[in-house]
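User: Predict structure, ligand zinc ion.
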Amino acid sequence: MKRLFTFIFVVISVLNLMAQEYNPQVESMIEEVNLDSLKMFVRNLTGEDSVRVNGEMVRIEHRVDSWGNDLAAEYVQQVLEEYGLEPTVQNYSTNGTNVFAVQEGTLYPDQYYMICAHYDAVDYYCADDNASGSAAVLEAARILTPIDFEYSIIYALWDQEEIGLVGSNYYAQQAASNGDDILSVINMDMIAWDNDEDMVAEIHTNSATNTQELADYIMAIDDIYDLATNPVIQNPGTTASDHSRFWNQGYAAVLMIEEYYGGDFNPYYHTENDRISIFNLPYFHEMAKLSIGSIVSLASPVGFGTGIDQLLANGGVSLNNYPNPFSGQTTISIELAKDDDLQLVLMSSQGAVINKLVNGPKTAGKHEFTLNADELPNGIYFLIGTTQQGSQTRKLIIQ
Ligand SMILES: [Zn+2]
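Assistant: Predicted complex:
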């Protein structure tokens, strides 16, 4: 039994890493990555601005572990809680404190995609290293938590990276000894410096299982969603950040970083002059989009539910179909919050319109009809319902 299950898990994880088509839901979530929000997290984490933590206005003066960086840990914990997560504060030693939270997947709750960064630092400010990566983890939580995903997502912020990758090492060892099925790890460390404005995003990989495939997947995200970053794979990549502790345990992991090997490295690195004022903000924004878009696509967003709140939140329209996947025909049900104009379009996975199924006024409530797909090739399709309030997308699989 044990062998059989291992085999099945491996097949599923490899398949999901390969299956990659344009998905309008992924695109809309990439568009939600907000530069003002990213800047706010960086300014709070680097003490440029004061912020309310545990009910009191405070300034995070630094994040240096040996000077005591508990306030930064409390801040990231609080942000994750604000987005409805239940973070674990992992005190693995006297000073060492990781903060992470799991968003449970609907189909594969025991399989995880991780987005992570270290929050500790070596001096005052240290905005690029690594409030930038930490901010992108918090921004991911902001955008992803309202949505259901097929796979579980782990948001993690490591401590003591700067004194030897201590926090991530502890976590990765524990995960491996528990047999945790972490399918991919995206680690962001220094994602905001681009002085030569070439938009190069380095993806550091090595030979650990599925790591090269993960890097290729991120390259494809950049391409499919037409991001402004220019990703370059570095293999063998550096071991000088937290992802390497996951490599050591055999997990697929990459480092997303500015031009570390390419010769445009932040000259203010590890000094108190590493402040948000030296960021290339458009670059920072695109780097966050690339990493967050990759996690969204990997974890596979599922169609929204039919709760009334979700119905209203999604343009007043809710889509469902049964069976799905299907061959031949499926029954599509549409629910409208109020009388409205409805457009219902079937799109291919490449974004081409196959058929306009509905185009005109519909009454509030539930409507059902049968979609006959006998003449369509097998594959993934999207059903997109649009009202005057907004739209909702559902993934259809014809097999
Ligand atoms: Zn760093």
